[in-house]
Task: structure prediction
Amino acid sequence: MDYQIKPLTRGFGAEIFGLDLSAGFSDNLAQDLVGTWNDAGGLMVIHEQNLTSEQHIALSRHFGPLFGDPRETPLQDTVSRYIHPDHPEIYRVSNQVSKDGTPKGRKGAGTYWHSDVSFRNRPAQASLLHAKTIPPVGGDTIFADQAAAYDALSEGMKTILAPLFAWHDFEVAARTQYAKPVVVEGDMNGANCARHPLVRTKPETGRKSLFVNPGFTSNIDGLDANESKAILEFLYHHSTQPQFLYRHRWTEKDLLIWDNRSMMHFAVMDYPDDEPRYMERCTVIGEPPA
Ligand code: OGA
Ligand code: MN
Result:
């Protein structure tokens, strides 16, 4: 296909130039982009996209079934007030509030290391975040490559982690973890809880990744609380070292696509309330981690 690809870091990520998806795109082109994304370790930015909501959703469907699609899942109960009123597949992130007092999106979303929806049995695969309005500076998003972080562990540590599972529990994590997600009505209903292996394999590539995150992981199953905390804190420190990171400085109309199976991300909220930031996200339902 006719577009240019530039690596974002030595390890992961690609930057795409020369594409205008708003002019319409074929299934072939969309499938080709999914391949490019996989080849880039699951992180890709496509610049200058004037996508309509319909186009954003149509492209996202090429990555898999979507959260919020009435044909796939019930409405996203925990985040329903942030869902686009006309498009249940679109989740909105914003620091802005409408004149009638309703939020234009979730404020403070992801201002801690996390992997989207890891507290569900089928967590997010790709997230496709489209920047509609951004502050003049700040509001960057940082990504940490958990496949590279896994590879960098010793064989001894890999052997220790191999049989372990962890609980991902939004409610427990919100009360006890240092990440302390911003909590809103609906988060604490006890339903956002799942048990996943500490190391998961991406079916498309066979590559392994660490799969725990300070935002949502509450504890390692079967370990004493102090043992669990020691291992998790080691892993969080290990997996957020600079050599595993990419920091995205947004340009308006960027479409950023990341694979939640092999990376964590962190939204830096360093901009003031009177500088609007508005993003729209489609989120692909992944397979149960294994
Ligand atoms: C998200 C998220 C990051 C950001 O949409 O999943 O974490 O920078 N947002 O808005
Ligand atoms: Mn997120």
Summary: The helical segments are 27-39, 53-61, 146-151, 155-161, 170-176, 225-239.
